[in-house]
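Example record

Each entry pairs one chain with its bound ligand, zinc ion.
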Amino acid sequence: MIASNGPYYDLTERWKALRGYRDVRVREVACVNARRTLLCAEAGDSALPTVALAAAVHGDEPAGALALLELVAADGLDPRYGYRIWPCLNPSGYDAGTRASIDGIDVNRTFDRGGRSPEAKAVLTANRDRGFLLSLDLHEDADARGFYCYEYGGGVLGRAAIAALDARALAVDPLEATFDTAGPIRDEHCRRERGRIVPDLTAEAALIGGWSYSIAMARRAARYALTFETPTRRPLEERVAMHRHTVAAAIAALSQASNRPRV
Ligand SMILES: [Zn+2]
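Structure tokens for the complex follow.
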């Protein structure tokens, strides 16, 4: 089912090559009722507050998966935190280059009710009883002109991510009134500014007909939860850099986050 020489196989081999290096533990989590597994990596000290990082729940959005690999390989994760990393939440879609899984399911609508896809069930089972300080889910958007993020519950981390891109002259989407967000979120259900959307969780879940990974994390498991989107129309290397810089910036801003009011 997963091609032995395809993009997902290549990704897993690159993660496994990091084993025992940079204090990274890599395992494969079984997907019940499906002949596939999910990669799960742990990095850093597990006794520290944990940051959850995830990518490629939509299989045709590879930049986040490549950025997470690069961040860990380059020792780019802040040592003040432990990490649980899902390098690719949709292996069959990643292999085929499709948004949906091989079952034809948009996995990112199935994180409610204990998980309504094999992938979501595997993640929610593995995360059971775990609490996270921060959750970041990395996506891409074919319509976007620059990076933007969803910051569930508000906060200061999204603006820190945007500042990191501004400092490097990387594109941030202005999110003008005509902008069509990647998720079907209506304007009355969110606040939006340049590069940043603060959605209404309940309204978003109702509109998309299920919980995304970030909605599940924001509601159940993580103090701060954000979804990052990079513009597919930009070169892959640039999108990978955007994800790398914004992930690092959001984590770096955690130490100030709890002292400031959420906006
Ligand atoms: Zn996506």
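The pocket of zinc ion is lined by residues 58, 61, 139 (CB under 6 Å).
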